[in-house]
Amino acid sequence: MNDAITNAPRPRGVSLTTLILGAALAAAATAAVVLALLHFTSAGTGAGGQTFVQRDTVKPQGHASGDVVYPLPFAVTPHLKVTAPHRPYTIVKQSETGFSWAADDMAEDFAGDMEAIKTALRDHNIQMALFNNQFTKKNDIVFEDFTWEATGVPVGAAGDLGLPFEQTGTFQSVLGKEGQEYFAVPYASPPQITLSGHNGTTIVQEATTGGFKWKNAGTDNPFPGNNAGEVTWTAKGLRAAKPPK
After folding, report:
1. Where in the chain are the domains?
2. Which of 32-46, 94-108, 121-135, 169-183 has the weakest average pLDDT?
């Protein structure tokens, strides 16, 4: 093959220098492509070099902080973006299975001397200013809904087990009480759990692959229609692989 290339007639009007330079550039380009493919494959280990995106909306419902469990776990900690129309939210901690969030303080959350409030926010001195009674914090703060988007590499099992698996059920929530709910089908990792219905003071304390614990943190009942009664739960996550026969 080399002799055929060497003895082939050189195109008219093209110098030897041009041919050599073209061959060098082609070799460099080939090397660059190979390096790029190697880098991409390394970054995508565990799911055929592919990345995927998960997104959802969080409804704080009066809570200033909380936790989110990804429906499908990632092989490594993903790139996370949190977006809200007005209020900023901080990611307290993050892992390949989820993240913890907290709502940032805003000037409109406080009542009193607005200049003192803005100064305390700027200097990150809110707690000391509250302790010194420079202003007060409102009781009816509204924490708006926010969306999150996580982009990363899924665990290897994600491609085998398919889309997130969803289960739902109900329980009766009573002020000051707590309880345990079990999943009919277990998950590969703790799923994302959402509550709806009479859940104004009902929270998820702990989620596992087999169920979750809930607690009604209310101590009185100013709004009977929202703080106690039937709560609907929805669990969404990666279904556990069936054990071998």
Report:
1. 2-43, 51-159, 164-245
2. 32-46
Tokens standing for residue 78: 């993903």
The CATH topology of domain 51-159 is Immunoglobulin-like (2.60.40)
Please state the pTM of the whole predicted model.
0.48
For the stretch 129-164, pLDDT in tens is 888 888 999 888 889 999 999 988 777 644 444 457
